Structure prediction request, 290 residues.
Amino acid sequence: MERAIRYSQKRADILAAIQGTDCHPSAEWVYQQLKPSHPGLSLGTVYRNLIFFRQQGLIQSVGVVGGQERFDGTLTPHSHFVCDSCGSVLDLPGIHPDGDLDQTVSRQYGLSVQRHELTFHGLCQSCAQSQSNQSDQNNKEETSA
Amino acid sequence: MERAIRYSQKRADILAAIQGTDCHPSAEWVYQQLKPSHPGLSLGTVYRNLIFFRQQGLIQSVGVVGGQERFDGTLTPHSHFVCDSCGSVLDLPGIHPDGDLDQTVSRQYGLSVQRHELTFHGLCQSCAQSQSNQSDQNNKEETSA
DNA sequence: ATGACTGCAAAGACTTTGCATCTTT
DNA sequence: AAAGATGCAAAGTCTTTGCAGTCAT
Prediction:
């Protein structure tokens, strides 16, 4: 017998929160986002629904950034950029390897490849800027010392 | 003043353990591996050295698999395969995107890209096999019931 | 001797889970 | 009414950290 699925208002709103942002939220972010409209919301419920949505294929995980798992409501193929300074995650819509790559790797290595992730790391625009300001200031202090 | 670095035997052995395996070990794995030869080893020391080696650029992180961070002593460009069933991590030496890709993304999106990771997911050979055996058995049970 | 490294254990952070209660169907 | 979903809080995992003692230079 199939297990029935009930769409509570909270469940729907948790999914909508993920799908309605491009910040690749963590469980905590979703919880804080919905707390005003759902005062009785529990963090455990958010976690349980994230697991549920991922099992249903409605969202995917972007991986763990700074100790927290981050999620993505966009399912079309795309890559990600992770800022190693502030932890922000950006979509890179145009960037993705060939669709045949999974099959190529499967054959070449005798594996059953189902998907791949291409993730870039570095500094986002604002972190790169503040870091260069920082080093400007350090240089100034060094030379004036 | 530069901070002096002292190479204790434990530190050297922790690094050697990582560099001497292709299993992409976790902190716990390194700890269990070295415990026989270093009975007084502490897990905290392993963690501290992993952080140290990564800062020194001697190892890199493969990311978090099944809740545990996994490390890699191989620094040449290559991709990884993660088995979503057993959590094993494999190197894919031949597979890696163009070297220019980081620069392309930097320009296209106004970011300061420093590196990228290409990671494949699916089932390793042995997990794919046992899973197909499992479903064979399930089919048998269903049809005979 | 100095300062870096380590062991130990406590603390921290994130996530999962058991159970009673509430909701959806 | 039945079964799924939730709240709450405890527990579980992995990792970090403070402090006192040890070790390399």
Notes: Chain B touches chain A at residues 63-64, 81, 84, 90, 92, 94-95, 97, 101-102, 104-106, 108-125, 127-128 (CB under 8 Å). Residues 3-6, 8, 10-11, 40-45, 48-49, 67 of chain B lie near DNA strand C (CB under 10 Å from a C1'). Chain B is about 45% helix and 20% strand. Chain B has two domains: 1-73, 76-145.
